[in-house]
Amino acid sequence: VAVASRFFAVGAVVPWARADVGAVATQAFANTSFGPRTLELLESGASPEQIVDILTQHDDHPERRQFGIVAADGRSATYTGYGCNSWAGGRSGKNYACQGNILAGEQVVMAMESAFLNTGGTLADRLFAALLAAEANGGDVRGKQSAALIVVKAGAGYGGYTDRAIDIRVDDHSEPFVELGRLLNLAQLNYAWNDAWTLFSQGKGREALPYMEKAAGIGSNNPEVLYDLAVIRLAAGKSDEALSALASALKLNPKLKKQALVDDDLSALRTQPQFMKLMGRE
Question: Where are the alpha helices (DSSP H) in 137-222?
């Protein structure tokens, strides 16, 4: 789910998602109970269209609500009550639902849909592209203030304990799209880094390496990322490449030398002259 609005902390209200279940965005004069209720109904087997009927039939002001639902299997639905502030409306298709209110016009939603469908990369990339396209086509007529983006995947959270692969928010900012983009870059770095370290912790150095290389490609100026790249390259049997990554890490942060000297994950390098040279102990 990705959202932006001229509203404080929109990420605390609109986006809801659960891995292998689905996602929902609760908008306009939002009934936030629609979030958890939708996820429960999806998990019980109800279709997005059925959920729209259930929620609107049991709500005091359905005319003021707007929401979009996407099930894990790609089924979707969007609903806009007749009392939502103009322009308001939405579009949906397999794997997506996009909607908005107080927009510059229908072109905003059309741009969101087109950007999501035609952008490559990760799901997060496509969601962010949809937000940028909406803003470029007029967006919220009141302006901009906050934005949020979440992506869920079973076991993708920190340490594999949650489903929050990416969970970022900009609650109040003069340039929320720029700030969300900065956070997304960091989130994608940390997502790859977390995947790498999870695999490494399971003794799967070779499997971990592509994820760590991706993280290092994003965070090429982050000494801790480069240090862990050295560790995982070594675990994958690439000692020369590990030394190169370690040299880059130490150049950026010489204080990491103390850690490298006692780190069991680098013990296989300590017999190499190049390692001792990096430590200043030739």
Answer: 176-201, 205-218
